[in-house]
Amino acid sequence: MSYSITGVAYLVLLFPVGFLIYRLFQYWKKEKSAVSKQALYIASLFGLFVLIDAISGLFFADSPLPPVLSKKIEVGVFIQALIFAVIAYHIIYLKFPKISPWLGFIPVLVLGLIAAILSVVLLQFNPFLEASGAINWGFPSSSMAVFVSSLRLFLSLITIIPLSIIFLSQFKNSEDPYIRAKSLGLGLAFLFILIVASFDFLFINTFNLGAIGRDIALIVCSIILFITLILTMPRPLSGPSSYYIKTSNKL
C-alpha cells in the first residue's frame, strides 16, 4: 500500500479544521444558540469532506479498485452542495432576520445538487496516482465539465465570500478585543474553505502547477491556517458571550 502526498496534505488540513470544529463546539455548548449551531454544522460538514479526502488519499491511492477514488469524488460533490446550502441559510439568518433562511438554503441546494448529479451521471473521472506521489483526480476537459466546475465555483463564491465579509466587517467595526479576535479567525477560516473548494481549479487549471504543486500549497496553507486559528480563536468567555454579535447592518 502506497501513501499519497495528497492524503498527507488533507491529513495536515484535518488539524486546523478539527481545531475550528472544537472551538465552535465550545461556543455552541456555552451559548446554545441557533447561530452557533449552524456554524458548527458548516465546519463539521467541511471536516467530513476533508476526512474522506484524507482517508481515500492515504489508504486507496494505489488501490486495485479504481472506483474507490471515483466514488470519493462523487460523494464529495454532494457534501459540497450541502455545505454551500447551509452557508446560504446561515447568511440569511444572520443578516436578514425578516426573511426565511430557507429561501437561501433551497435554491443553493438545488443548484448544488444539479452540479453534483451532472458530475455523477455525465462526467467520467479517471483518478490515478502520479509518479510524484500526488493524486491526479482525472477531471475531464469537456465543455460539460467546465460548466459543472463553473457552477460549483459560482456557488462557493456567492456563499463563502459574503459570510467571510460579515465576520471581517465585524472585526473591523468592533472595539472589543474578544469579538475582533474571534471574527478575524472565523472570517479567515471561511475564506480558506473557499480556497480549498477551488484548489484544483486554481492550481491545476489556472496556474498549471500540477497535482504535486496543489498538495504542497495545501500543506503550507493548512499550517498557516492552524497557527492563525490558534492565535485568533479564543476560548469562550466565562461571562456572557455570543458566537456572532451584530455591530453593523452592512455586509
Topology:
Elements: H1 5-31, H2 34-59, H3 67-95, H4 102-122, E1 128-129, E2 135-136, H5 143-173, H6 177-197, H7 199-206, H8 210-232
Question: Any key phrases for this structure?
Answer:
single chain; mainly alpha; Rhopdopsin 7-helix transmembrane proteins; globular; disordered C terminus
Taking strands numbered 1, 2, ... along the chain, how are they ordered across the largest sheet? 1-2
- Report the C-alpha radius of gyration, rounded: 18 Å
In round numbers, the mean pLDDT is: 85
User: Strand share of the residues?
Assistant: under 5%
Write a structural description.
- By secondary structure, this protein is mainly α.
- It has a single domain (5-232), classed as Rhopdopsin 7-helix transmembrane proteins (Up-down Bundle).
- 74% of the residues lie in helices and 2% in strands.
- It has a two-stranded antiparallel ribbon with strand order 1-2.
- Strand 1 and strand 2 form a beta hairpin.
- Helix 2 (34-59) runs antiparallel to helix 3 and helix 3 (67-95) packs antiparallel against helix 4 (102-122).
- The longest helix is centred in the middle third of the chain and has 31 residues, at 143-173.
- It starts with a helix and ends in a 19-residue tail after the last helix.
- 36% of the residues are buried.
